[in-house]
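Quick log. Single chain, no ligands specified.
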Amino acid sequence: MLLLDTNVWMDYYSASRAGHVKAFELIDYASAHGIDLLYAVNSSRDVFYRVAADAKQACREDSGGVLTDAEALAAQAVAWASVEHMHGLATAVGSDESDVWHACKTRSIHSDYEDNLILAAAQRAHADFLVTGDLRLLQHSLVAALNVDDMLAYLRANDSEDTPSEGLALGQKRTSQPENDAPVTR
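-> predicted structure:
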């Protein structure tokens, strides 16, 4: 299972971002090969907000700074569609008080609160890898973490090998939910 950081989802949903093509390639590859994808539930909020904000900004730029009510509604509809699509591709990892505790306790290792919530989600779900474009998070991650390019290379290399990796082979579906208080929702 791969837990994708918010920045990977944003790259996927925003064609203007530098990482769009690679994020699309990774998610497409994972989907085609039955590899479970995850996201921290708070990532969906961030994706919704950024997609709507980006769509509104594009409308303002096209119309000289004016955003109509119809354009605002359309931007919101695009944001809803993105979150619903994301939910169709991946499973949300819930959060609770223990994630806040984790984020606070790991502050001395990595000082970004939102990143620490992503790390807590990866640990909660027993993700095989965290995939992120955040260089600082890659350096400080307490779970196995790769950037999108390296994750694609890893998946492709394992796809061509005859021997399964130790533990859960990527692409193998889990038959039970991760052990935690807040369920992984689908």
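Helices lie at 6-13, 20-32, 41-62, 69-89, 97-105, 113-124, 135-140, 148-160.
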